[in-house]
Write a structure and sequence with these properties.
- The protein is of the alpha+beta class.
- The chain has 2 domains: 2-134, OB fold (Dihydrolipoamide Acetyltransferase, E2P) (Beta Barrel); 158-289, OB fold (Dihydrolipoamide Acetyltransferase, E2P) (Beta Barrel).
- Helices cover 31% and strands 27% of the residues.
- The strands form 4 sheets. Strands 9, 10, 11, 12, 14, 15 and 16 form a 7-stranded mixed sheet that branches. Strands 1-2-3-6-5 form a 5-stranded mixed barrel. It has a two-stranded antiparallel ribbon with strand order 4-8.
- A hairpin with a 5-residue loop joins strand 14 (211-219) and strand 15.
- The longest helix is centred in the first third of the chain and has 14 residues, at 2-15.
Length: 290
């Protein structure tokens, strides 16, 4: 058993950062395919409708048109918990993920591929033109469908000085249309760190699908709005730190005494990430990752 696990781990490590080729034997759904050598490939950067959702069959048919029986080039990004290769897939030199998103047959997977800005731009282009699944007024995201949410959220009235939080990307970033907002003065755990999922889930609970008000502070190098975010009278930035789900980002907000005090209190009470004896600051985690 130990030997098999070791071999699996070695295979996963050897695949990452490699480019492999293979012929598509079968398309399993709108973002997953099987190669003739038995390798299952999850297309990186997209999330297609699940079985039981509208457009699931159309998405699968579109992916078959693009890939079935064709030789594919796959730039491996990762292997997932199911042992599938996750990678950028090209057929005849064309990026399959972009083709799926452009035709409105898949979402940009903003959580697992936030850096894929081209996919994001293509998704909003398809949405604007009401292509594919965007012909529906409020299609349900596959992520939400998998979580058991089968109906779209009701429409939210948004005041002139507010925006609608449409999608939480992680514990300190969300999207409204094509606008990305980074919560000022805090730094939540990165994907791959302990409490990253908890931080994202809590921010979703606090603001996703709701009207929020921004107190804009800056625009960062990634063209994100940097702001204090309010839901009603609640300062969301402060709330995340109070609950131990984000650090006070002292480098960018040295004068934010409320955030500093909230972090000190959460640390003392061992809330959230402070339950660990030596949690790693997201800044240090990013630095080591680079």
């Amino acid at each position: 058993m130990t030997k098999n696990l070791l071999l699996t781990s070695m295979l996963a490590c050897s695949l990452q950062a490699e480019t492999i080729t293979g012929t598509c034997k079968r398309v399993l759904d709108g973002d997953t395919l099987l190669l003739t050598n038995g390798t299952t490939v999850q297309i990186w950067g997209i999330d297609a409708p699940e079985k039981g959702q509208d457009y699931a069959d159309k998405a699968r048919a579109q992916l078959e048109k693009l890939t079935k029986g064709r030789k594919l080039t796959i730039k491996v990004k990762d292997t997932d918990q199911y042992g599938r290769v996750v990678g950028e897939v090209k057929a005849g030199g064309k990026d399959v993920a972009h083709s799926m998103v452009l035709t409105g047959m898949a979402w940009h997977d903003e959580y697992n591929a936030p850096e894929a800005e081209g996919l994001n731009k293509s998704m909003y282009g398809a949405r604007k033109k009401r292509r594919g699944l965007w012909a529906d007024d409020a299609p349900v995201r596959p992520y939400d469908f998998r979580k058991g949410k089968t109906t779209p959220a009701p429409r939210v009235e948004v005041a002139a000085d507010e925006i609608l939080c449409e999608y939480v990307m992680d514990g300190d970033t969300f999207k409204s249309g094509e606008t990305r907002v980074r919560l000022w003065g805090i730094d939540a755990p990165e994907k791959g760190q302990p409490y990253a999922d908890e931080a994202r889930a809590r921010l979703k609970e606090l603001i996703e699908g709701k009207a929020v008000r921004l107190e804009r502070k800056d625009r960062d190098q990634h063209s994100r709005e940097v702001a204090i975010v309010y839901a009603g009278s609640t300062n969301i930035n402060l709330q995340m730190v109070k609950e131990g789900l984000a650090w006070h980002y002292a480098y960018f907000a040295p004068d934010a005494e409320d955030l500093a005090a909230a972090e000190k209190s959460a640390r003392k009470k061992r809330k959230g990430l402070w339950a660990d004896d030596e949690p790693v600051n997201p800044y240090e985690f990013r630095k080591k990752s680079r």
